[in-house]
Every structure is written in structure tokens, then in C-alpha cells.
Amino acid sequence: MGYSVSLVLGVPIGRVIASAYDWKVIFGGIGIFTVLGFIAIAITIPSMQSEAPIPLGEQLALLKNPKVAFALGVSLFVFIGYSVVNTYITPFLTSAISISGKEVSVILFALGIASLFGSKLGGFLADRIDTTRTLIVSIVLQTLSLAMVSALSGFAVVVIVLLMIWSVAVWMFGPTQNFNLLSIAPEASGIMLSLNSTFVQLGFAAGAGIGGIAVGGSSILAICWIGTAAVAVALFITVASLGLTRSLSSERG
Predict the structure, then answer these.
(1) Can you tell me the distance from the alpha carbon of 16 to that of 175, in angstroms, rounded to the nearest whole number?
(2) What are phi and psi of 48, to 5 degrees?
(3) Does the chain have fewer CB atoms within 10 Å around its N or its C terminus?
(4) pTM for the model
(5) Is there a contact between 63 and 202 (Cβ–Cβ < 8 Å)?
(6) Distance between CA 142 and CA 169 in Å, rounded?
């Protein structure tokens, strides 16, 4: 919820500040709010005894578990797809549907609202239809919506609606995947969440880099096709993981 609310408020506010003043002002504001965050943490969160540090080798040993490796691979490719599109969403919107800067701010605000709804929907569906089905629904929706954005980039209203569906689907994935990883290795919950965060950040970095190469060498319109391909890989890994799980279950049976 915290991530979603920050997207709802932070992105459009940042654009307004950059338009009214200067983009450098944003970084000063981030610094101030970071300091305020430190103060709030120091005041409100009680001191507690930390857990014994776990060697990096033991943490990475979890990757020997095929279910863990597959799950983290899914996180990696989902967020490569997300980062490729989200990093360059503003130039994509201005190029694909020819809108102004103010209209971009409104659309980004709408996408933030969609992400907030997606976080809640992911938790709701995980409780109702289980985590695996929710993850599959999320990844399929991401793949289809990005593919359709690429194919229908000339239709402004359709593109905006599809991007909102994509935003809902991406943020359905996050909390559901966290719960999925905890269920795979409940005895190492802290390490699992840490590894997942690492793979998510790798996805962000790789997606931004791949998108930059595509935009520089091809066209801004290519980012949605690249995002589609990345999420399709995540879907393939998910299906392969399900097949592996069933195979292991059959052997045990």
C-alpha cells in the first residue's frame, strides 16, 4: 500500500514541481523527506535485538531449490517488463498518442490509482483463488495488455485503458509473489524477501538499460513489445515451475 500511495501522489506531484520550478528542486525535496523519515523511524519504531547475520553463501544456497529459483526468475522478468515500460512512459505517451505534459500528469495519476487498486486486488484474489492462480492471472493480463498497447498505439483512449489494466496487473503481482515466496520457504522468510527484493531491483535496472538501448537504437514504440516479451518469459517460467511441482509431487506419490 505504501508503494502504491507513493506512486499515486509522488509521480504527478514531481511533474508539477518540475514544470513550475526546476527538476533539481525535486531532489532537494527527496532529501528533506528522507531526513524526516529517519526521524519518524527513530521516534516510532522501538529498538529490538537484531537477528544473527547469515553468511551470503547460505543465503544463495536457497537458489539451489528449483522452486525458489523459478519464483525469483519470475520476479526478475516481470519487473524487467515493468521497468522497460514505466521508465520511458512519458516519452511513450507523448509520442504514441500525442498528448501534452499536463495530460501526461493526469494519466500518471490514473495509473497510480490503478496500482493502488491492483495491490488490494492481488491480496483479495490470493485469499479467494490461491496465490498461483492469482500470479498467472496477473502475468497473463500484463502480457495481453502490453501486446495490445503495442498493436493499438494510435488509439489514445484504448492505450490509456490498457495501460491502466497493465498497472493493475503489475501491482497485483507484488504482494502475491511475496506471499508465494514465504510459502515456499517459511523457515527462511527474511532471506526470501531479501532475495526477492534483490531480483526486483535487478529487474528495474535491466529493464531501464534495455529500454534505453531500444529507444536509442530503434523507436520509443518498441518498449511495449520488449515489455511483452519479458513478461511472456515470466509466464513461461511460471508454467514450467508448475510442471516441475507436479512432477515432484508425482514422484513422491
Answers:
(1) 30
(2) -145, 160
(3) C
(4) 0.84
(5) no
(6) 6
